[in-house]
From TrEMBL:
Residue stretches spanning the membrane: 32-51, 63-80
InterPro entries: MFS_dom (IPR020846), MFS_trans_sf (IPR036259)
Keyword terms of this UniProt record: Membrane, Transmembrane, Transmembrane helix
Highest classification ranks of the organism: Bacteria, Pseudomonadati, Pseudomonadota, Alphaproteobacteria, Rhodobacterales
Keyword Repressor belongs to the record: no
Keyword Transmembrane helix in annotation: yes
GO MF, one annotated term: transmembrane transporter activity
Name of the protein in question: Permeases of the major facilitator superfamily
Span of domain Major facilitator superfamily (MFS) profile: 1-97
Range of residues in the leader sequence: none
């Protein structure tokens, strides 16, 4: 699973962004995504440390993190489904080319 996830993470975001946002601003989109990732990796340990200081053990935090990731995945799936309805049909793209 780790290999599958790492491989998918290396390939899918660029293809997703190009499909949904086009290739004109792909550099700006990638840099914004990288900035969000760096911010999250900087804030996460601080939040976890504060929770530990307040008596929430790390294994207990994992349950909250798992719930957060599940909710984020659900919201992402809903967003992709909604955005897909706004994209032109693939056959319309082929005719335009």
């Amino acid at each position: 699973m780790l290999g599958f996830g790492t491989g998918a993470q290396a390939v899918l975001p660029g293809a997703f962004w190009a499909e949904f946002y086009g290739t004109r601003h792909i550099g700006a989109i990638k840099s914004a995504a990288a900035a969000v990732m760096v911010f999250g990796s900087a804030v996460g340990p601080g939040i976890s440390g504060l929770l530990i200081d307040r008596g929430v053990d790390f294994p207990d935090q994992m349950l909250g993190i798992a719930a957060y990731l599940g909710l984020a995945g659900l919201l992402a799936a809903l967003g992709v489904r909604r955005a897909a309805r706004l994209l032109p049909a693939p056959d319309a793209l082929a005719r335009a080319a």
